[in-house]
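JOB MANIFEST
job_type = single_chain_structure
chain_count = 1
residues = 313
[input]
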Amino acid sequence: MYKITGHHHISMLTKKAQENNNFYTKVLGLRRVKKTVNQDEPSMYHLFYGDLTGSPGTELTFFEIPMAGRTVRGTNAITRIGLLVPSRESLDYWKARFEQFNVSHEAITKYAGRDALHFEDEEGLRFVLLNNAGDEIPEFWTAWEEGPVDLTHRILGMGPVEMTVHRLSRTEKVLTELFSYTEVERIEKEVRFQSIEGQAFGEIVLKEQEGPSEKPGRGSIHHLAIRVKDEEELRYWDKAVKARGFASTGMLDRFYFHSLYFRDHNGILFEIATDGPGFTVDSSVEELGQKLDLPPFLEERREEIEANLEPID
């Protein structure tokens, strides 16, 4: 039986690509590993940030939508992203850094059983830094050593992802019955699940909340992608998703990986994505993220596409 091996990436909306780039590279110290476009709508940037090569499980991605309005928070949405840092001392480092850069943040507290520091980016996207406390992380996560952040306290990769839903049982069944996630903690209307038992890098925190659904805008989360090994596994999951009665997009070639999308009955958009071939398929490790990369089917439109994009550093 195939197993979901953790998070692959998570995708958000931003209003201004340049300001987004500044925050994630200069403040959070992530590497921009790919500057490309939305393959379904190439008039907008698609930016990827992560570790040295944008390893699965480290990728934060953003679609630039200049006309995006503000997010009206609510339920039936992915509402918070956990990022793992090495130690409790790392949280002190980041708290001081957030104060230096005027980043909205809270006091150090607890979240998902770990020491935690909540913060928001400039568009209100909600994050929480979590003390990994020496726990296992995927062996292929590789530090980018040229960033502005002290490597001792760098962001390792993604931890728990929070989903807020109107009917908890609907998404719970997707996680446990379809994907075989394990429930590890339940406190009233909040449940924590792990794709790999005992490991934070594949956690999902599910919260039940009444009220209207979120209205997405700048700083909202579009979808969560979860990891599978290859196309053979993806074909299996395409059949499994359809067998549960969900409408799958079928397998899509995203050039840097293959994937499929479906929505659960709370409206949460999941992507299932393969580990490879990865971002070095059209770029050397040294040159990742420096130029506009386009998948082959868009290359003949490069001049048109570049003319419609505002240049960013």
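[summary]
The chain has one domain: 7-307.
DSSP finds six helices and 16 strands in the chain.
exit_status = 0
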